[in-house]
Amino acid sequence: xxxxxxxxxxxxxxxxxxxxxxxxxxxxxxxxxxxxxxxxxxxxxxxxxxxxxxxxxxxxxxxxxxxxxxxxxxxxxxxxxxxxxxxxxxxxxxxxxxxxxxxxxxxxxxxxxxxxxxxxxxxxxxxxxxxxxxxxxxxxxxxxxxxxxxxxxxxxxxxxxxxxxxxxxxxxxxxxxxxxxxxxxxxxxxxxxxxxxxxxxxxxxxxxxxxxxxxxxxxxxxxxxxxxxxxxxxxxxxxxxxxxxxxxxxxxxxxxxxxxxxxxxxxxxxxxxxxxxxxxxxxxxxxxxxxxxxxxxx
Length: 298
Fold this sequence. Notes:
This protein is α/β, with parallel strands linked by helices.
């Protein structure tokens, strides 16, 4: 009888151990990978929400850039119909791709900029890869900045614009002290941990699952989720930043933007868009959004 109970205990223990390892390795994969959109899927979504006909009319130049660790980044130059030596690099959000940046392109075209859109690491046409919420992505963007200045030597002004993960990437990149004239951060997170804990709370999942995901991420990928903190890149930043956030963003709280605005040493402005959810500001209030960007650039 005792032997039978011992066997049952061993079986139950083994099952619990397997479940624990499954959670430990599965959670970080869910957080750091996830399904990505194809270029066609992303463009279709954009076209359903606003007029994208301008894109087909633009002269385009596709090219690739190799990051510091040998990873290949796909980029696309959208040439302004009016000759200009001003450029802006636009970074898209998580699971999206460069098509997700199109909604901001007309604003910069009207302000006399050529626009560079690109696929963040692990997105779009790039090879599958984990998302490190700014760590490697910021490094990639810094390489793209250097490439832009080398590729277009006539350049007179260079700016950055990012949405969500792209905004966090933009902010993180500032730790490298890149040679850029301005940055626009739309609904960025100050640190990914507070976002994950918010998601867990809304889903009624114990918050310690975030700690487990962090342990799993370190074991499986060698990166700590708790160290993915764009806000830490602002302590010595002097690049002017325009912070934009939707007041009704329940995915990434506007408090993230407020914290980063307080953290940066450089000139900055904060614009909160009423009634706008996550990454919806430019669609909710396009005229106000463009006016804020135009005023900032001027």
